[in-house]
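Progress against Task 2.4 (sequence-to-structure conversion) is shown through the following example record, which the project officer requested during the mid-term review.
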Amino acid sequence: MSLKLDNIDRKIVSALLENGRLPAKKLAAELKVHPNTLLQRLRKLEGSGVIKKYSACVDFAKLGYDFHVIILMEVKGYEGKPEQLKDLLEIEEIEALYATTGVYGLVAVCRVKNREHLLDITHKLGRSPIVTRSVTQVVLSPYRTPDRFNPLPSQT
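Structure tokens generated for the chain above:
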């Protein structure tokens, strides 16, 4: 269920998507609203779950995680229950795990340091009782990443 946002709310969310570290005082000035109004709006957006958290955009390659991979998994016996994914969710290198339609019932997005590290992860995936087969694809060039998604372009 989507929340009805007015123009000010949309501008706040858009600005924070562009720069989550923007000081409230500066954001209020840019949007031409009183700082107290901005803080009330932020509390409303946080309370409603529109803003779930504030986070940093990290260059994982600079931390030694040179391989960004997508692993497509065929599954058997998966009934959509989160407890069936417990072993997969414990693999810290999995950045995102999605249940999907089609041949591959699960898709994992992972960050690994090198080929040996990737091999270790694929072995862990293979030990899951629901994974019957996996196909791994290495990301060569990220032309657009999730941190760039902003459906509310700023119109300030």
